[in-house]
Design goal:
Chain lengths: 137, 121
Amino acid sequence: MSDDVKKSRPEFRNIHALTDLPNYRLPLAGFISILHRISGFLLFLMLPFILYLLDLSLLSEDTFGYLKGLVDHWYVKLIILALSWGYLHHFCAGIRHLVMDVHIGLDKDSARRSAATVFAISLPLAALVALKLFGAF
Amino acid sequence: MAIDNIGPKRLVVGAHYGMRDWLAQRATAIVMAAYTVILLVTFLSAKEFSYEAWAGVFAMQWFKVVTFVAFVALFYHVWVGVRDIWMDYVKSVGLRLTLQIATVLWLIGCAGYAAQIIWRA
């Protein structure tokens, strides 16, 4: 094969974050996948905060009350909502992973359907947490 | 699954090739999922959400042990996942090694904090 033919072919060695990612149409399962990673990393970064909340909730009656007061702030509610969504998404997408590990639902159609199912479960549950946090019930 | 597409000269044993961590990630996921169910059932079956009820659950020794096991599973799981992220996006070896060491230290610190929370009372 001549060098000319080789050179005229476009090479896709890596996806460039700025030029390629904005026009890259991700399939539904792709959104599940990248959000699985993002939610996992978010939970990793917030681990000390989560442990701190558990600490406050268990240390004494006073710190338990302090925690309740802390959660009255809207920005703390938002952080807890983000963490709840992260956990719910990571949990549901993780279960999907485990099911696929035993070779169930690997074809394109079922993979898309299971991806939709993950969103259909995790997002309403996150919405429920939001309603509870902001006092709808 | 095709297992014959890796080339005749490639050694497929010896360095684990990620199999051990892949499996550990799955096993720890199952442990955490089971713990989530235990915690949810305990929490939702309580008559009211008060400090006594909540702390009472965590005062039982078996629950402390189960909680700690779930936390250890969590830390191993996080190690595998976060290391994957560093390996995927950080190409500089020096920076990657630094981030990986920082991750391990971060997780060991969290493990100590978790143990203190669980067994303080």
